Amino acid sequence: MILVLFYFLRVDPRFLERRNRAKEKEKQQVLIGRLSSLIFLAGFIIPGLDYRFSWSQVPAFMSISADIVILLGYLIVFFVFRQNSYASRIIEVEEEQKVISTGLYGIVRHPMYVGVLIMFIPTPVALGSYWGLIPFALFPLSLALRILNEEKVLSANLKGYKEYCQKTKYRLIPFLW
User: Strand, coil or helix: what is 138?
Assistant: First the structure.
């Protein structure tokens, strides 16, 4: 993560400014953010409790495999960030922002969220917990709610987004959704 930070400090510091904005303007996104925060809180606390009370016996090779999957998810997020300098943490449209429809954005409309799912779903296993998978099983639902609201905002405020949605049919998972 530090290497990615230094990369963007050198190549695209405006991107880092956008990523640091945390005050969500969309009321629905505030509620979805709270739901996601609860999921994440439980998703990290439960593995800690699991470790403390030895509820799970996750073999080392499974934890290491989960770490590799998490790294692959992070690489997807990094490539999305390189491709889309407007990938903000909050739902917003800037005046000079344009629709990106090539690369990973030509496959699904929200490739960053694909990477995020790949990063966080196996996190409890990487931490040595099967029980931590339970709260993270709700994460795709909170992400779907975020995507639906985000697309409403982008369709209303980002020129060309509706046409992009017709061209790139799938939001998150090719051939499914």
Answer: coil
